[in-house]
Amino acid sequence: QVQLVESGGGLVQAGGSLTVSCAASGSFFSINTMGWYRQAQGKQRELVATITRGGSTNYADSVQGRFTISRDNAKNTVYLQMNNLKPEDTAVYYCYAYERRMYWGQGTQVIVSS
Asked: What is the DSSP letter of 73?
């Protein structure tokens, strides 16, 4: 079992930066893939970024060059550094971990004002 707890969401002006983090706990040996999805109001959940235990990353086209995903394997924590935020980045951001199955965090709200 894996429990995920996110933190760091909030309100920021367009062009600003914000970092969200997600800490994993529970009974597991290691988690291969962690990442972030987001869901804007009235829209489907979409993949934002992923990172493997070895550090390989993948980004959605909409955030490429603005967002950076990283992880601290010793702390079982994944981070999403978001720069040059746009109002269309407003969403609930969900952390996930894949360890034989998908696990989800509770979500953290990010609001970008214009």
From this structure: T
CA separation, residue 57 to residues 12, 34, 41, 47, 67 (Å): 25, 10, 26, 12, 11
The reported pLDDT for the residue numbered 30 is: 81
pLDDT in the model for residue 103: 95
Report CA-CA distances (Å) from 100 to 31, 35, 44, 103, 113.
9, 15, 24, 9, 38
| Residues facing residue 59 across a β-bridge | 49
- pLDDT single digits (tens) 58-106: 999 999 999 999 999 999 999 999 999 999 999 999 999 998 899 999 9
> Mean pLDDT, to the nearest integer, of 30-41?
94
Alpha-carbon distance of 82 to 11, in angstroms, equals 13
Determine contact, residues 28/99, Cβ cutoff 8 Å. yes
Residue position matching structure tokens 């993948």? 58
